[in-house]
């Protein structure tokens, strides 16, 4: 099985070392390497609790933020979004910085990169010590941001070559309810914030979820709100790669309880969604759609999407998309690609709305 990297052997006493196994998380009593085992089946985590280590505390009420390298602007943006967002419910809420770093298999030497087993132990120790110091410096930047916001912070280090799988496997291990991930798109022209939330205390909680993303655009919030409220049938004129049409089935454009049908292209296929305009809040530039029929209902028992347009000065805004859903069964994946769809749609509309 995969083991915690040898560098963690010298970690200070304030750090707890665990290994993730099928039934949960168990303390590691020894550290050793097994190169013959398959990669990615298990991974190791290092939780820097700074508290009582006689027991493993429940981390489920905390907010987990994935952070990358020190030049990763999207990670800092995701953290700053978290610190300003109402998901931080109180001053007692902990933010856990989750950093995935690669398994060390090759060590630089005068002869080039060599397998760990082939280099002098002192050279190995020197390299892993330097890598450990680099991680401390990296995390310190994020820790200082949390301290400035007066938010309590801990760190979770994961040694794995597969970042996405490591994060997904961590969710049930630590009973994570809130996870925030930032991703830059199109040469950093905009940022996608993925916010995953689960409510394990509620019935069928394993099937319920919430995803959220913020998209910054250089266009007024009121114009974005207006086109989706009164003129959704015009969206296809400016973002035809995403939306091919919108028809009114019941009621009036811009009215609560009206029913409209979206025709859109998602995941390589043309799709439809018949939705109810469930709520409109003009003061907060918010619209909520409830899906009644269509492709989404083949996988979800219920599905709602909310768009909130947040002004950022006179000519810029943040468009927040929130998806709340209940899957038909646990083999259905969470609709992350719909957040990407929404982001692409919003960026396509940006130029038109800025000029309108």
Average pLDDT works out at: 77
Q: What characterizes the major β-sheet?
A: 15 strands, mixed
Number of helices: 6
Task: Give the low-pLDDT segments.
Answer: 1-57, 186-191, 200-205
Rough outline: elongated
- The structural class is alpha+beta
Number of strands: 17
- As a percent range, the share of helical residues equals 10-25%
CATH level-1 class of the largest domain: Alpha Beta
Tell me the number of structural domains: 2
Cα(first) to Cα(last) distance is 59 Å
- Strand and helix order: EEEEHEEEHEHEEEHHEEEEEEH
CATH H-level superfamily title of the largest domain: HUPs
Architecture of the largest domain, according to CATH? 3-Layer(aba) Sandwich
Radius of gyration: 23 Å
Strand order of the largest sheet: 2-1-3-8-5-4-9-10-11-17-16-15-14-13-12
**Remind me, CATH topology of the largest domain?**
Rossmann fold
- Percent range for β-strand residues: 35-45%
InterPro entries: Bet_v_I/MLP (IPR000916), Rossmann-like_a/b/a_fold (IPR014729), START-like_dom_sf (IPR023393)
Domain Bet v I/Major latex protein: 206-356
Pfam family, one: Bet_v_1
Protein name: Bet v I/Major latex protein domain-containing protein
Q: What would your notes on this structure say?
A:
The chain is α+β, with helices and mostly antiparallel strands and 356 residues long. It folds into two domains: 6-197, 3-Layer(aba) Sandwich (Rossmann fold); 212-355, Alpha-D-Glucose-1,6-Bisphosphate, Chain A, domain 4, CATH 3.30.530. It has six helices and 17 strands. Strands 2-1-3-8-5-4-9-10-11-17-16-15-14-13-12 form a 15-stranded mixed β-sheet, with helices on both faces. Strands 6-7 form a two-stranded antiparallel sheet. The N and C termini lie far apart (59 Å).
